[in-house]
Amino acid sequence: xxxxxxxxxxxxxxxxxxxxxxxxxxxxxxxxxxxxxxxxxxxxxxxxxxxxxxxxxxxxxxxxxxxxxxxxxxxxxxxxxxxxxxxxxxxxxxxxxxxxxxxxxxxxxxxxxxxxxxxxxxxxxxxxxxxxxxxxxxxxxxxxxxxxxxxxxxxxxxxxxxxxxxxxxxxxxxxxxxxxxxxxxxxxxxxxxxxxxxxxxxxxxxxxxxxxxxxxxxxxxxxxxxxxxxxxxxxxxxxx
Length: 240
Hints:
The protein has helices spanning 3-7, 17-32, 53-57, 70-79, 116-129, 148-162, 165-175, 179-187, 194-203, 231-239, and strands spanning 41-45, 62-67, 86-90, 102-108, 130-141, 206-210, 222-228. It is α/β, with parallel strands linked by helices. The protein has a 7-stranded mixed β-sheet with strand order 3-2-1-4-5-7-6, sandwiched between helices.
C-alpha cells in the first residue's frame, strides 16, 4: 500500500467527529485569510474532505478542490453539488487548467506524502498555473527535528481547547497500532528543513518566504509562501 491508496478509504486519522470538524474549520479559516480578493481563483490541492469548502468558496470567485483519491472526490461532489463556485477535480486534471489562471494555490499537509521528484513536479506545475502576482502556500511542512511526541502534544493541546481530549487520548493509542503507523514506518514521511524548502522553491522559480505561523493547529510544523519570480526578482537573485 502507498499513501494514495491509504487515503482512498475511511481512515482513523481523526480521533472523533468533533476533531475532524474542528480541524477542517480551522484550515478553512486559515485559507480564507490567504484569499487576496473576492474575484480570486483558488486551488486547494490535496484538499481531503474539505468539510467547510463552501465557506471558502463564498470568499472567492472559484474554488477548485483537487484530490488524488476517488473516494474523496466522490464525497466532495455529493456534498457540494449545486455550488456553482466549487469545482471538484482530480490531481491528474490540474495540469489541464489554463496556464497563469490561479491567484492562490494551497497545498496543506500533503508534501510529507510525496517523493522528492513528485514534490519538484508539483512546484513546477504550480509555477505554471499561477498568475504573475499569485501565491503558492505550502502548509504543514515537517522539519527533520520534529518527533511524534511533539505532534502528539500539539494534538492534545488542540483537543483540550476543542473539547475532545478524551477521544484524542484514545485515538493516539489506537493510531499506535493502526495501518497509518505501519505504512509510515514502511514508507516514511518526507521532512524538510527551512533551508531545503527555500532552495526548492527558488529552483522552481519562486521567491520564498516562511510564514509567521503554520496552517492548522501544529505550530511545530512550518508554512511557506512562494510568489513567482519576476524580472526584478531575477536581477536580485543574480546579484546574490
